[in-house]
Every structure is written in structure tokens, then in C-alpha cells.
Design goal:
This protein has 10 helices and 14 strands. The longest helix is centred in the middle third of the chain and has 18 residues. Strand 2 and strand 3 form a beta hairpin. The protein is an alpha+beta fold. Helix content is 31%, strand content 14%. Helix 2 packs across helix 4. The strands form 6 sheets. It has a 3-stranded mixed beta sheet, with no helix packed on it. A 3-stranded antiparallel beta sheet has the order 5-8-11. InterPro entries: Cyt_P450 (IPR001128), Cyt_P450_CS (IPR017972), Cyt_P450_E_grp-I (IPR002401), Cyt_P450_sf (IPR036396), Cytochrome_P450_monoxygenase (IPR050121). Keywords: Heme, Iron, Metal-binding, Monooxygenase, Oxidoreductase.
């Protein structure tokens, strides 16, 4: 129980939020469609952080979130497990004792049989077009079953609240149109420095003299993130990793677990392997 509570409290969605903002900033068409859905569903007078009931019926926003999680799962790797004595048969494939098995999200989220030939493209519309039964069996950003991420429901709700609150108010662009989202690879895929431009949307009908803007600077700087006395005439660039300071939903940093001196494994499949998968620790036996 204590571990479950700790996992819920420490679960974070800032990495996923950074990735979602990156893909939306890169795709003007998708961003415009999301803005329209939010404008239609949320009141123009509602300027507070979005609430749970408000984000329950935003299908295109959910598609944007899911598509970003497909392309940039927080964990690209499944936790490797060792086949016990007696072996194991899965889908008519026999695996002898001692075999190390894993289910890497990076790989299954790029299976063209499920997602189509454009698996590397950010296209939220695929979530309305593809076979939903196949998607439900294949999409696993938080894993599936009794050992799935214990904080998955909280994390997804946080993503809905953060994205709805940010995108309802702001227009975002990349500092450079061809900018790539660099990540630090490991069990968790942590986005690194990526600058986006952020501008208050005029459709809210707010006085421009009170428009809030983010300052230009690095994460953790002394500058205030928001300046309520500045009028926006152009996008101001910030790093995506400061988004959780805009919507303060996270309180703690990720708990870092040491895996030194543990056995490691490299998995080989017929599909593209997830990046940075070497050195992944085997966390326990397959049960």
C-alpha cells in the first residue's frame, strides 16, 4: 500500500506534456483543430484551469494526447523478464527457460499492420480511422494488465487538464520549423531542451494590456515565468520543460532508482528497436 501511494504521488506527466506540446507546435493543422474543439466546448469566460468534467468529452484532444504517447511513450521499453523453468509458449511461439522477454512500446507503437504506413507521422485522425479493437490491444503507454502503471489514470487526467488549460489560452510554434525533439534515453524518455514560442490567443477577448507572456530564458532561471503587464506582439520562446510551472500540477521530481551491478539485456526483434535500450536492467522473473 505504501509503495502504491508513493507511486501515485511521484507519477509525473511533464515529459509527456513536453512531447505533446512539441508535436502540436510542429503541426499547425492539428493545433487549429484542437483550438476549435476547445473553443466550442469551453466557455470563453472560463479562464481558470480546466476541470475534470470539462475534459471528459474532448475526443480530438484525446486523439492528440494518444498520438503523442504513441510516438513518444514515457517508457520506450517494457521491463525485461526471465522465462522460468519449463519454458513458455506465447501465440504458438515457444521460449525456453532463461529467455529474456520484453514488450517495448516504441516497437509495437510503430507496427504498420496496426497503425498504417505513416507510423512515424503525427496524425491524430488515425485514432478515428483505425480498427479500434486492434488499437486497444496494441496501445500500451502505461502497460496493460495487473502490473500496469499504478498512476496511469491520474497521469492521463493530468495530461488532459494541462493540455486543455494551455491550448485554450495559447498559440504555440517551434523556434525552428525543422527542430527535432531530443531525448535522454533510458527506461524513461526525458525530453531535453526544445524551445517553443507561446502567444496569448486573441479569441479569448482579453485586454491585450494584461496579456501574460513567458520570458525568454533557461529552465530554473531567476526571471519570472509570467509577466502580466506585457502586451504580446509576437511569440516569446521558452523551453518546453517549463510547462509544469505554467500549470502547477506536479510537486515532486521522479524518484531515481539505482540499477548498478544488475544484469542487463539487449533485445532483438524484427521491428525497429527502441532507442537507448542497451543496459536495461532485468527487474525480476516472468510470472
Amino acid at each position: 500500500m505504501k509503495r502504491s501511494i508513493l507511486s501515485h504521488y511521484l507519477s509525473r506527466s511533464d515529459s509527456s506534456t513536453c512531447a505533446i506540446l512539441y508535436y502540436l507546435a510542429r503541426d499547425r493543422r492539428a493545433q487549429d483543430k484542437l483550438h476549435k474543439e476547445l473553443d466550442d466546448q469551453l466557455s470563453a469566460e472560463d479562464l481558470t484551469v480546466a476541470t475534470g468534467p470539462q475534459v471528459k468529452n474532448l475526443p480530438y484532444m484525446d486523439a492528440c494526447i494518444n498520438e503523442s504517447l504513441r510516438l513518444h511513450s514515457t517508457s520506450a521499453l517494457g521491463l525485461p523478464r526471465v522465462v522460468p523453468e519449463g519454458g513458455l509458449t506465447i501465440d504458438d511461439h515457444y521460449f525456453p527457460p532463461g529467455t529474456v522477454l520484453s514488450v517495448p512500446s516504441f516497437t509495437i507503437h510503430r507496427d504498420k499492420r496496426i497503425w498504417g504506413d505513416d507510423v512515424d507521422d503525427f496524425r491524430p485522425e488515425r485514432w478515428f480511422e483505425q480498427n479500434q479493437a486492434d488499437i486497444q490491444k496494441t496501445f500500451n503507454p502505461f502497460s496493460i494488465g495487473p502490473r500496469a502503471c499504478v498512476g496511469r489514470n491520474l497521469a492521463y487526467l493530468e495530461l488532459q487538464l494541462i493540455i486543455a488549460s494551455i491550448m485554450r489560452r495559447y498559440d504555440i510554434v517551434l523556434e525552428s520549423p525543422d527542430q527535432k525533439l531530443e531525448t535522454r534515453e533510458g527506461f524513461l524518455r526525458k525530453p531535453l531542451g526544445c524551445k517553443i514560442g507561446i502567444k496569448r490567443r486573441d479569441c479569448l477577448g482579453l485586454r491585450t494590456s494584461r496579456t501574460r507572456t513567458s520570458t525568454t530564458g533557461t529552465v530554473g532561471g531567476d526571471n519570472a515565468l509570467l509577466n502580466s503587464s506585457t502586451s504580446i506582439v509576437e511569440h516569446r520562446f521558452i523551453r518546453t520543460s517549463v510547462n509544469t510551472r505554467i500549470i502547477a500540477t506536479m510537486a515532486l521530481q521522479t524518484l531515481t532508482l539505482s540499477t548498478e551491478n544488475e544484469p542487463t539485456v539487449t533485445v532483438t526483434t524484427g521491428y525497429p528497436p527502441p532507442p537507448g535500450m542497451h543496459g536495461m536492467a532485468i527487474r525480476g522473473p516472468l510470472e
